[in-house]
Specification:
Layout lengths: L8 E3 L28 E6 L5 H17 L2 E6 L4 H13 L4 E4 L8 H9 L4 E4 L13 E4 L2 H15 L7 E7 L5 H14 L5 E8 L4 H14 L5 E4 L2 H13 L9 E6 L2 H8 L5 E4 L5 H12 L7 E4 L3 E2 L1 H7 L6
Parallel strand pairs: 2-3, 2-4, 4-5, 5-6, 6-12, 7-8, 7-9, 9-10, 10-11
Antiparallel strand pairs: 1-12, 11-13
Helix pairs in contact: 1-9, 4-5, 6-7, 8-10
Bound molecules: alpha-L-arabinofuranose (AHR).
The site of alpha-L-arabinofuranose (AHR) has 13 residues, from helix 1 and strand 10.
């Protein structure tokens, strides 16, 4: 099933129960704003760094409206300190529930503990935190980024199966410390890292943005004459890199093969045009499931501790077929 159909999100695996505490009816500490039946959600978004993020923000805002949930939305502009500030503001406003997509994995325990002590339940969306204390949040909804990296690596392995090697690769990572940057790198390396035929010449953060993707790719091209493959952790960095490759007089998708993650419209167009060779999908349409989960958590119902997004991959031919219906 394509993530376009999403729903497209599967309630997965671990059905360990969370919930109850912090709910509207549980007398959840200092939280639980006005008891007027309306749920107020504080949502701290990473920023607006990519087409994926824009689609994710729209999905969250539209779904909140449709679900009758009042959304207090805050854009952290890719800064953890802004997210911590926003979460503290939500706590002082006594919202019913907090949801956020953590810009980096580490450093959340203190503020999450503050939310817990205030009786306000937290849902992680899109990205995970590395806290060992799983009681600090109710559930985590989002993709398996390691699997995404693995899918990219498997495509590369097949694509270069008959090449003698070495296959010279460069990698554009997401922002340092972000779950998708760490996990996509790990998944890719798990497939190719131990194969001497595949050589990673350079791997640097491009912060998930087009501008930085272009800038870092320019540096890669200056330092390395023979690049066979670019692995970009998202479409936007891949699209920036395409500009750098063309400016260097090379043909993206031909002289340098490109694999990216996300499958947003611009990425899919570049794939259909032959400038990208393969895209691993990461769906941003998390809003409907987030609102469903929020209602259950606030009502004190049991929710799964992990809700996994179902995703596919796209070849150039598949992108051509999918593009007319692509919503984001
Ligand atoms: O966390 C999801 C990632 O964040 C997307 O792949 C990327 O485009 C975004 O900025």
């Amino acid at each position: 099933m394509s993530a376009v159909v999403l729903g497209g999100v599967l309630v997965a695996a671990t059905l360990a129960a969370c919930g109850g505490e912090g709910s509207r009816n549980s007398g959840g500490g200092a939280a639980a704003g006005k008891d007027d039946g309306k749920i107020v959600m504080g949502f701290s978004q990473v920023g607006a760094e990519s087409g994926w993020r824009t689609a994710n923000t729209k999905s969250v805002q539209d779904s909140a409206r449709e679900a009758g949930i009042e959304l207090k939305f805050s854009d952290a502009q890719q800064k953890q300190e802004n997210q911590i500030k926003a979460i503290r503001t939500f706590i002082s406003q006594k919202v019913d529930i907090i949801a956020f997509s953590p810009v980096v994995e580490s450093g959340w325990d203190t503020v999450l503990k503050e939310a817990k002590d205030a009786g306000i339940p937290v849902i992680l969306t899109d990205r995970a935190v590395d806290s060992p204390d799983k009681t600090l949040y109710k559930t985590f909804i989002g993709s398996d980024f390691v699997v995404e990296g693995t899918k990219a690596g498997e495509w590369v392995k097949k694509e270069f199966a008959s090449a003698a090697g070495p296959v010279n690769m460069v990698e554009l990572q997401g922002n340092t410390g972000a779950a998708p940057a760490i996990d996509r790198k790990e998944g890719f390396a798990s497939v190719l890292g131990s194969d001497p035929k595949f050589k990673m010449l350079a791997s640097q953060p491009g912060d998930f943005t087009r501008v930085k993707g272009k800038e870092v790719m320019e540096a890669f091209l200056r330092a390395n004459k023979d690049i066979d493959l670019l692995y970009a952790h998202n479409d936007d960095m891949g699209l920036g890199a395409i500009e750098a490759i063309e400016a260097a007089g090379k043909k993206p998708g031909v002289d340098i093969k490109i694999v990216t993650v996300d499958a947003v419209k611009d990425g899919m167009q570049a794939l259909a045009d032959g400038k990208i060779n393969f895209i691993v999908e990461c769906s941003p349409l998390l809003g409907p499931q987030l609102m469903e989960l929020a209602k259950k958590v606030v009502a004190g119902e049991t929710v799964p501790e992990r809700v996994l997004t179902e995703e596919t991959t796209f070849t150039q031919e598949q992108a051509k077929a999918a593009l007319p219906d692509r919503k984001y």
